[in-house]
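call fold(seq) -> tokens
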Amino acid sequence: MWDIRGNRLFAWHRWSLRGRLTLVAGLVMTLLCLAVAATVLIGIRGLAGQYNVDRIISAALKTVRLVKLDQLPTDLPAQGIAGVQVLRPDGTVQAASPSLRGELPIVDFEPPETSVRQDRVICDIPAFPDSCMTIVAIRVYEPDGEWMVYGADPAVPWWVDPRVDLLLLLSSGALVGFTAAGTYWLLGRALGPVDAISRELAAITVSDLGHRVPVPRYRDEIHRLAETANATLDRLEEAVEQQRRFASDASHDLRSPLTAMRAEVESSLLDIEATNWADTGEAILASIDRLQALVDDLLQIARLDSGAQGRSDPVDLGQLAAMELDRRRHRMRVVRELHAGVIIPGDRLRLGRVLTNLVDNAERHANSVVTVKVYEEDGQAVMEVLDDGAGVPRDKREHVFQRFTRLDAARSRDSGGTGLGLAIARQISESHGGSLCIEDSAKGARFVLRIPVSR
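ret:
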């Protein structure tokens, strides 16, 4: 296919889907019409050929009757065909129609011994040069021998008749045209919702995620596509809004220690001689520690959000808990109920971070004691961290796992938390195929981690 504007290959990929499908439908219908037209033409040619043979036989039989009645004239009537010729048993011409008068025998074949008639199509007969003729030979039995009656008429060409060919061509062209036009119209109706969806998606920007694509009323594939697109847009808007809140909360929490350090430095510079620089340094170090903890948590969140895979080594959860508890300083009494041999596949560092975050949270809210348990139950490794504090209200149990979330009661006591510890712990738990939630307890909060054990 070539572009009419120049000798450049037509860019098929630049066609619209509607145009491509219409062209394909037109080509398929064209091939189908050609096949049907060829079949019809072959059938018509067969009927026309048989009709032509029947005409020749009818004319020849009239001549046979004259032979039988011994009323055969020398000059035979044409009888509506090209020619009739009668041969005596010795092969000489006894009678002929005007077109064959004075001609030698037009053919030399005879019907087989088991039949009295045979027809053939023979071309370039001397009596009919440059044409193909249908010849019918009939054997006539007479007392003096076998006479032959030959009838001839032009054979039906493969195209049968130009009028038939023109009719088939016009019918096929009209059918192809109607098919292409109907396909183009139907595709326009079918793909109209897709265009509407494309326009609506093109109008969506980061600052305006409230658009939703129109959903067609017919429950077909495009209907499901529109519903899926809207569900994706809902998740996208929720994720963007979550990222905005996260950025706002992170900037606020990062600003707090920086503001505290700036206030300490400015206050000390106002009265350098009277300033206790040791106390000022300790205050600044405390703000730096808080800032470092917040940055570490933000980096951990970024790694988890990026989907970075951790190690998958066999980890004894009880042994890991014991090691983590041994190397940290505790602000209150910690009771251990750790069972050995509870093996799970996972990343030792990340799992240690889960325990550290849970114990830090428990120590900030406990009154006097924190309990850590590790055991196996129903094919799952279970780690519980309990405190004897005020606990978490039932309607807030999921809320505390959101980022930068601190309950009002915790804000008055929680001076070192970043609001990210529990969110990080849950995300690490889920990345190990487990779960982390708050379950009922007699007193305080009871955080329960469950991860499938390794077999």
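Helices lie at 17-68, 162-202, 221-270, 277-305, 317-326, 348-365, 408-413, 421-431.
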